[in-house]
Design a protein that fits this description.
Chain B: Keywords: ATP-binding, Nucleotide-binding, Transport. Chain B: This is ABC transporter ATP-binding protein. Chain B: It holds the Pfam family ABC_tran. The structure holds 2 protein chains of 2 kinds. Chain A has 25 helices and no strands. By secondary structure, chain A is mainly alpha-helical. Chain A is globular and about 65 Å long. By secondary structure, chain B is of the alpha+beta class. Chain B has 9 helices and 20 strands. In chain B, the strands form 4 sheets. In chain B, strands 6-7-8-3-9-10 form a 6-stranded mixed β-sheet, sandwiched between helices. In chain B, helix 6 links the parallel strand 7 and strand 8. Chain B is elongated and about 75 Å long. The chains are: A mainly alpha, B alpha+beta.
């Protein structure tokens, strides 16, 4: 051994925790979500003229009958929509969860497609279909009913259309929990003596409750900030807070009052999150880890008691009905129900397509003849083409920026052992639980000071905030399903870090990254609220242009524009679904 | 088969059916064109511990699901205590099932899990509490009664699953690879535990495993399955000492197999002609198996080869001898006996009656 220099390897530097990779994204959200929200709060507490602290705006919001009615309207409608969504979506999700994998994917697509079709298009479809010359009125006339009943501009229609808009979101939230339930648990309940009905109430339902709760949370918060449906399909009596905020900003120029209303929305959203957290723990929704449950907690005991009562009640009912109907199972009833719900979700969107090819001057159904004139008009209109191009441009920029920030963050958080991880996680998910109208107003007052109003950059920054959670979740899910031992294996086989990344990591997660890009693009492409506030009158995106037009009149040109949106969304959505790595599809 | 014989056979099965806890008559399950379980006849006696052994895909789990009522058969009948239960739904069979990954209800505590089957049977409160306490006591979990399953170790979860099963005293218990997820030491402890529960309760247990050692150690009888049918049914000793087929011999862990054709002097293999065991004969192809402990190193042995592996295993040496054709034989030598070195020539032989002639 003598003469051989023994190389002493330099002691490796302590490796920094990977969480610093999340820093760019965290700073971005701090700058464009947290700070402007705090700015909004302080603005709502200032006097417009003197700049002194005051509660005047809140006194007005909670004291003047016009506004108290709007506020109670908003909560009441959001609550009704939430309950309806949960009731309608649960059997649908239950049905989907029990389908064989292949059919489940196809059927889930039919639910996801309306989820990704913008609320504007869906509500516009109802406006067209339920209008005086729409399909329903025509159908009723054909049935011999003379005066078509008032289908539009009432509360029932608003609630129906909002529910229609958000059932897919509720169903998808529930489905993600239900598909992870171990089917052997209900089987086990069966072998232990529980009938199917009892097994459902005592085992399946309690275990699927986290999905129900997160669905409820997302729908309720979404409903609070809704303005499209009441504006398009409601009467003044259905005015909601979102509309009031837009009105205050755009017509009244009263940013202080708009801030106060927004602050109330934030407070409501945060309160619902707290309730949710008390019952289920926010970590459930975000997929995080720790659970601290107590076997004796009141909520848990109440829940168990309720499921027990329900199971006894429905067990008895099903025994009676089985006795009456010779033990026939009602499986077909559930299938029929699910098919009807999916049809109602998809049909209004599809129904728009033939109407875009009408030769008529005005909307009518059925279209009197085939013509491409409205598409020609769309293509020849500088307003529409520039809005379309801007939407594509901003969408592409949003996708790239969002995915850069989200991918770095997801890498960081997936590999970090830091105790800060859950907080970083929460911040990335926050845009999902803050009504987008609030984000719009918050950014408006920030960008007004930065001179970013009516700029493409301003819209893009807002869209990045909006698209962040979905991009982050997709990348994180991809990374979580990635087997890091493969990277270690590649390293032991002699690949250095860049080569491990290029040859092993990247090819395996590429599908997820592309899907993330597409969904970030779609989020931006369909976003209306931010564009409404930041775009001003000059920089119209496609949804903003449609919104401006639809407020004025319903024309076949708008239908043609909607069809363009539907085609773009459907094509990209299908592409993303094809590329997305399928869980459990391992060779 | 003539009518008379048919009647006699039916009578015989019915006779058996009455004395048996569980009888399968031609029970089968087919998925499309795939035979998950070919028509099977099996009787399990009351109080018996029967192990269903086989490689994955051999139909073990299908068999278990059919018995439990979690899958419906495409043919045949299933009798429990002589009563036809072919179409009885799972929750009315009163069969205890211990699932592969326990299937404990994650939203219920240990106590609530164990109480569930009693609640389903509407057992009065006081008796329920007493029986749950006794069941948890039996598996040594009394102190963990208010924990949730996710807060328990694998072995503790396994005990909860056993308590939840034994608490309602089912007369027939199915266990689907219940020890598969445990490490070796814990597995041996739980094997003893399950044997004890079997003895104490007198329950009939059907235990599925793919581990032949586990099967040999625990069972009254082993039902060896392959390709959806019974390959061999017998006591552990019968199966180990008298495997009926090459598959049985191989699966039970006998590695010394020499293939050949019948010739005038015995079985003609690539490495020489081997004497047939006394009283056997046949034509065409067959194979001889010989257990490692019966292979002797002796100069007049019929087979010659070279020692290619020598493993010291405490009480013995295990030698691998590679024959001219490339076939290998394992030989056991007690420690202390002379052992040839690696690479040396060795001549092998055995008393003909020690070998078994098998047809594939």
């Amino acid at each position: 051994m003598s003469g051989v220099a023994i190389e002493v390897a330099a002691a490796p530097r302590r490796r920094r925790d990977a969480i610093w990779l999340a820093l760019p994204g965290l700073l971005f959200l701090a700058a464009f979500l947290v700070l402007p929200s705090l700015g909004l709060l302080s603005l709502s507490l200032t006097d417009d003229d003197t700049g002194a602290w005051t509660l005047h705006a809140y006194q007005r919001a909670l004291g003047v009958p016009v506004y108290t009615r709007i506020i109670s309207n908003t909560f009441w409608i959001a609550l009704q929509v939430t309950v309806l969504c949960l009731l309608i979506a649960y059997p649908l999700a239950y049905w989907l969860a029990r389908l064989p994998a292949r059919r489940q994917r196809i059927m889930a697509l039919l639910v996801l497609l309306p989820l990704w079709t913008s609320a504007l298009v869906k509500n516009f479809a109802w406006l067209v279909l339920l209008g005086r010359n729409g399909i329903f009125a025509e159908a009723l006339r054909a049935l011999g009913m003379e005066a078509p009943p008032d289908l539009l501009f009432n509360r029932a229609t608003v609630i129906f259309a909002m529910t229609h808009s958000m059932v897919p979101l509720a169903a998808v939230s529930m489905l993600s929990v239900m598909t992870q339930l171990d089917p052997r648990l209900t089987q086990a309940a069966g072998t232990l003596g529980a009938s199917r009905v009892t097994a459902f109430w005592r085992v399946y339902l309690p275990l699927s409750m986290p999905g129900v709760a997160s669905a409820g949370l997302l729908v309720f918060i979404g409903g609070l900030g809704y303005f499209i449906t009441p504006a398009l399909l409601g009467s003044p009596r259905e005015t909601m807070m979102g509309q009031a905020i837009i009105n205050q900003v755009q017509q009244m120029d009263n940013l202080v009052f708009a801030s106060a209303l927004s602050a109330l929305l934030i407070a409501a959203a945060l309160a619902s999150c707290l309730v949710y957290d008390r019952v289920f723990g926010l970590s459930r929704m975000t997929g995080g880890g720790s659970q601290s449950r107590s076997a004796r907690s009141l909520i848990r005991r109440t829940g168990l008691w309720l499921t027990r009562v329900a199971s006894t009640l429905f067990g008895a009912l099903s025994e009676v009905s089985a006795g009456l109907l010779g033990g026939h199972r009602f499986a077909w009833l559930l299938t029929a129900y699910a098919v009807v719900v999916i049809a109602v979700l998809v049909l209004p969107i599809l129904a728009l397509i033939p109407m875009a090819f009408t030769s008529a001057e005005f909307m009518s159904f059925p279209p009197p003849g085939f013509s491409l004139r409205w598409f020609e008009e769309y293509m020849n209109s500088p307003v529409w083409t520039s809005a379309t191009l801007r939407s594509f441009g901003i969408g592409a920029a949003t996708a790239v920026v969002t995915m850069t920030l989200a991918t770095l963050a997801a890498f960081g958080l997936a590999r970090s052992a830091s105790r800060l991880t859950p907080f970083a996680f929460l911040l990335f998910m926050t845009p999902m639980v803050i009504p987008s109208i609030v984000v719009g107003v918050a950014l408006f007052q920030l960008f007004a000071r930065l001179g970013l109003i009516a700029t493409d950059l301003g819209i893009m920054l807002g869209h990045v905030v909006h698209a962040m959670p979905i991009a982050f979740v997709i990348v994180l899910a991809t990374l979580k399903s990635h087997d890091w031992r493969l990277d270690q294996a590649a390293a032991t086989l002699g690949a250095n870090r860049p080569r491990v990344f290029c040859r092993v990591t990247m090819p395996l997660i590429r599908g997820g990254l592309v899907a993330g890009l597409i969904f970030a693009f779609l989020s931006s492409f369909e976003e209306l609220t931010v564009a409404l506030f930041i775009g001003g009158g000059l920089r119209s995106t496609l949804p903003k242009q449609m919104w401006d037009d639809v407020i004025l009149q319903v024309s076949p040109l708008l239908v043609a524009a909607s069809v363009v949106v539907i085609v773009v969304v459907t094509a990209l959505f299908m592409l993303a679904e094809l590329l997305r790595p399928k869980a459990g599809r391992r060779a | 088969m003539n009518a008379d014989a048919q009647i006699r056979m039916t009578a015989a099965t019915e006779q058996e059916g009455r004395s048996a806890k569980l009888s399968l008559n031609g029970l089968a399950k087919q998925y499309g064109s795939v035979h998950a379980l070919r028509p099977m006849d099996l009787n399990v006696a009351t109080g018996e511990f029967l192990t269903v052994l086989g490689p994955s895909g051999s139909g073990k789990t299908t068999l278990l699901q059919l018995i439990a009522g979690l899958a419906e058969p495409t043919a045949g009948r299933l009798l429990i205590d002589g009563q036809d239960h072919t179409w009885t739904p799972a929750h009315k069979r009163s069969i205890g099932v211990v699932f592969q990954n326990y299937a404990l209800f994650p939203h219920m505590t240990v106590r609530e899990n164990a109480a569930f089957p009693l609640e389903m049977r509407r057992v009065p409160r006081g008796e329920l509490e007493r029986r749950v306490a006794a069941a948890l006591e039996m598996v040594g979990l009394s102190t963990l009664r208010d924990r949730f399953p996710t807060e328990l170790s694998g072995g503790q979860q396994q005990r909860v699953a056993l308590a939840r099963c034994f608490v309602y005293q089912p007369a027939l218990i199915l266990m689907d690879e219940p020890l598969g997820a445990l490490d070796r030491k814990l597995r041996e402890t739980m094997q003893i535990e399950i044997k004890r529960l079997h003895r104490d309760t007198g329950a009939t247990i059907i235990f599925v495993t793919h581990d032949q050692e586990e099967a040999l150690a625990m069972s009254d009888r082993i039902c060896l399955m392959n390709h959806g049918r019974i390959e061999q049914l017998g006591t552990p000793q019968e199966i180990y000492e008298h495997p009926a087929t090459l598959f049985a011999a191989d699966f039970i862990g006998i590695s010394n197999v020499l293939h050949g054709r019948f010739g005038p002097a015995g079985l003609e293999t690539a490495d020489g002609t081997l004497a047939l065991p006394p009283g056997t004969a046949g034509s065409g192809e067959a194979a001889l198996t010989i257990r490692p402990e019966h292979v002797e190193l002796r100069p007049d042995g019929a087979l010659r080869g070279r020692v290619t592996e020598s493993v010291y295993a405490g009480s013995e040496f295990r030698l691998v001898v590679t024959l001219g054709s490339g076939a290998t034989l394992v030989v056991r030598r007690s420690s202390g006996q002379a052992v040839p070195h690696l690479g040396e020539e060795a001549a092998l032989g055995w008393a003909p009656e020690r070998a078994r002639l098998l047809f594939s």
